[in-house]
Amino acid sequence: MRKPIALRPDYDAARLHRIARESQDADQVRRLLALAVIYDGGSRTQAAEVGGVTLQVVRDWVLRFNAHGPEGLIDRKAPGQLSRLSDEHRAALAEMVANGPTPAVHGVVRWRIIDLCQWVWESCGRWATASCRRAHAITPKRRAPSRRSKKLAGDSGDDRTPAGPRSQQHRDLVR
User: Does residue 102 sit within a domain?
Assistant: First the structure.
């Protein structure tokens, strides 16, 4: 069995308890208290029980704590995917949307996402649907108009035709 990774010598259990009391982040407090168990002489298994995690996670916490101190135990925001378009391409796309299409040149009277994506593909060599949506201020899903808005527009919303003699015949068979 390997020797466990040692914790930083510049901290002790009392100091971790003090930092945990002052912290507003519940996850950081849980991690600090688990590491305080190790400083008090407890095993990594006991620290895992206090933290409610596995030994591997405690090991990861020890590595983060050793590298960055108590601040390393705060959850960081994930960086996310990098943008596929450069700043110049994004500015050109925003300008295309602001100016609108020219029917003689672009062949459309209003921009659709697919038209903008095709333009981005031709000019940048990249397919960037999300960037086209953001530039066009379109959400991926659109709600269908509600019945209330149809009634306000003057549509009764009743498209059904009255029942004919044949439907009356079938109705009698069902009874």
Answer: yes
